[in-house]
Structure formats: C-alpha cells, structure tokens
C-alpha cells in the first residue's frame, strides 16, 4: 500500500507538472498574441517631416494600446538614405517575426524587392510618404500606401502665391512688368511628389492669370543646407529680381529664408517665400512674416492611419471600411492652406 501511495502521488505530481507546463505554454502563446510588433523603416531620420510622422506614430500607438488593451511595440530604423541598409532592416524585421512592416522608401523604384520579401514571409506592408509605382503595389494584396495627393499640394501652394500676388501686386511685382519672376527649390529628382508639386504649383499660378518667368531652379533634396547654398547663389546672380521663392517643402524654404536674412532681403523688401508640410519651423516663419504661407501636410493623421491599418492587419482583420480615408489600398490625407489669416488657429490646434 505504501508503494501504491507513492505511485499515485507520483502520477498526481506528473499530472500537475503537465498542467503547469501546458498552462505556461498557453500563457506564453496568449502573451505573444497580446503583443503587436510593427517595424518602421524610414529613409532618413533627420528629415523634418518624416521625424514628425515618426513621433506622431508613437503617440498614436499609445492611444491604440489603450483602445485595444494590447501591447504594441514599434521599432523605427533609420536607413540614412541607403537603400541597401533599408533592405537589411526589412530583412531584420522579417527574421524577428514582426506583424507588420511600414516603409518610407529610400528609392521608390526599388519597392518590388521589399514587397516580394514581405509577401514570401506573409507579413503585410505599408508604404508611406514615398509612393511605389502601381505595378509594385499590385504584387501583393496585403500592400498599402499612406500619403497625400501631390497634385493637390502643388495646386494649393500655387494658390497661395496667386492670392498674394493679386492682393498686393505692387508689393510683389517689384519691377512692375506684370510677371512673377521666381526661383524653384525642388526635392529629390526620384521623388514623385517633387516633380508633381513643382509642375502644379506653377500651373495654378498661370491658371490664375499671372504670367511667370522662372529665373532658376535647383535640387535641394528636401534639406535646409543645400537650399541655403542654392539661394545664396541665386541672390548673387539675380538679386532683387527674385520676386518669389517656391519650395517643394518647408525645410528647404527655411534654408532660403536664412539666406535672404543674411542678405537683408526679408519682409517687404524681399521676395515672398512659400513651402509645403506645415512644419513647426515653417509655421513660426509665417508668424514672423518671413513666409507668406505653407500647405499643411498632416503628419499626425497619416501616422494614425498607418497604426490603424497595421493593427487591423496584425489581427487578421480587413481594414477596408474601417480606416478613415482608406480607398482600396491607398490612403490620401487632404492638405489645407496655412497663411497669416489662419496661423493662430493652426498653432493653437497643434
């Protein structure tokens, strides 16, 4: 009997251990499912707008964690403008079993490689800010894009310039020839938004009945320093013939403003300056009267939509009909104009 009791005790203990191990395994599986992992690969961390999207995404994640009562891990990797590095970062996210990968392409024409990797791994992918070509988006039905309408941005930027010219032609048309002499600061040549913003900003000015003359244009690669150098060159060559500086983004507009300040050409004595993005620095320049306006590119809303899509995909749910602005597999957040007329309202909302 004694040995039987020991045997029964052993069976009970073995059963208890089995239940404990099974329970631990279930808890581990539950913990795993309760965590959503999102990998974010950005083209360059020192880009003012992309930095704003990244920080807004982290804020959106905190709100989503409370809503879902789930832990959401976001890992942001900076490719430092190297497509090779970005490919490696995506490989790392895949090897670590991330649920969703968000990519701000270094080279939008190289998206097919990343889509193929994500498709093979069965991981949904969300591109943002730099839109892949349609053929690459069509490789897999779990590929999404979050961004804006570049044509709309260009048109609104041109409208800012046209409205300012019409309101005070004698102030802007300094030589009185009835034309707007301008210089154009362009983003990267491979970025579709740069080409489209440039084209439609000028088309809109012309559509408003204002003749234009391009004095110069140059690639500032979205950055302040190259734009500053370009503006210094143009000031030396054209001086007060420059009546407007049209910039594809606010960061390059900042470089232009710095060059104009150094040459005593800000305010009513200098050209008007306009940008796109609505960065904090850009808004401050509008307050100071050093920029006439910008086109707001709403980073917060783009970040929120990315997090929404990512969480639905991570839970094997279709985001269609559940994410604001999602049309098919594309999200395009509307822009709006910011000038001295509404700058106070915009700043108070931030």
From TrEMBL:
Annotated CDD domains: PBP1_GGBP
InterPro entries (UniProt xref): Bact_Solute-Bind_Prot2, MglB-like_PBP1, Peripla_BP_I, SBP_2_dom
A family per Pfam: Peripla_BP_4
Coiled-coil residue spans: none
Limits of the Periplasmic binding protein domain: 38-315
PROSITE patterns: PROKAR_LIPOPROTEIN
Superkingdom assignment: Bacteria
Keyword entries, A-Z: Calcium, Metal-binding, Periplasm, Signal, Sugar transport, Transport
UniProt source species: [Clostridium] hylemonae DSM 15053
Main location group: other
Localization terms from the record: Cell envelope
Subunit text: The ABC transporter complex is composed of one ATP-binding protein (MglA), two transmembrane proteins (MglC) and a solute-binding protein (MglB).
Name of this chain's protein: D-galactose/methyl-galactoside binding periplasmic protein MglB
GO cellular component: outer membrane-bounded periplasmic space
Signal peptide extent: 1-27
GO molecular function, one term: carbohydrate binding
């Amino acid at each position: 009997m004694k040995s039987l009791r020991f045997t029964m005790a052993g069976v009970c203990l073995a059963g208890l251990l089995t239940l404990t191990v099974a329970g631990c395994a279930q808890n581990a599986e539950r913990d795993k499912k309760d965590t959503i992992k999102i990998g974010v690969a950005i083209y360059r961390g020192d880009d003012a707008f992309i930095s704003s999207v990244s920080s807004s995404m982290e804020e959106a994640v905190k709100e989503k964690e409370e809503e879902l009562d789930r832990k959401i891990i976001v890992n942001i990797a900076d490719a430092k403008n190297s497509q090779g590095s970005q490919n490696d970062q995506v490989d790392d996210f895949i090897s670590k079993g991330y649920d969703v990968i968000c990519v701000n392409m270094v080279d939008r024409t190289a998206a097919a490689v990343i889509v193929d990797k994500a498709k093979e791994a069965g991981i949904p992918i969300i591109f943002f800010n730099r839109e892949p070509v349609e053929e690459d988006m069509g490789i897999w039905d779990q590929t999404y894009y979050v961004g804006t309408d570049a044509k709309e941005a260009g048109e609104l930027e041109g409208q800012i310039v046209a409205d300012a010219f019409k309101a005070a032609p004698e102030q802007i048309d300094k030589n009185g020839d009835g034309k707007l002499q301008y210089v154009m600061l362009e983003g990267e040549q491979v970025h579709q938004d740069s080409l489209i913003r440039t084209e439609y900003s000028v088309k809109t000015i012309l559509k408003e009945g204002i003749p234009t003359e391009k004095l110069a244009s140059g690639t500032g690669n979205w950055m302040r320093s190259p734009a500053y150098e370009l503006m210094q060159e143009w000031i030396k060559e054209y001086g007060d013939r420059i009546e407007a500086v049209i910039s594809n983004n606010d960061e390059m507009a900042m470089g232009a403003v710095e060059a104009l300040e150094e040459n005593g050409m800000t305010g009513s004595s200098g050209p008007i300056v306009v940008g796109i993005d609505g960065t904090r620095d850009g808004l401050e320049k509008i307050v100071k009267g050093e920029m006439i306006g910008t086109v707001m590119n709403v980073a917060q809303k783009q970040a929120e939509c990315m997090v929404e899509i990512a969480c639905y995909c991570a839970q094997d749910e279709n985001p269609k009909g559940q994410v604001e602005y999602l049309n098919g597999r594309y999200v395009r957040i509307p822009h709006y104009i910011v000038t001295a007329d509404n700058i106070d309202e915009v700043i108070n909302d931030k």
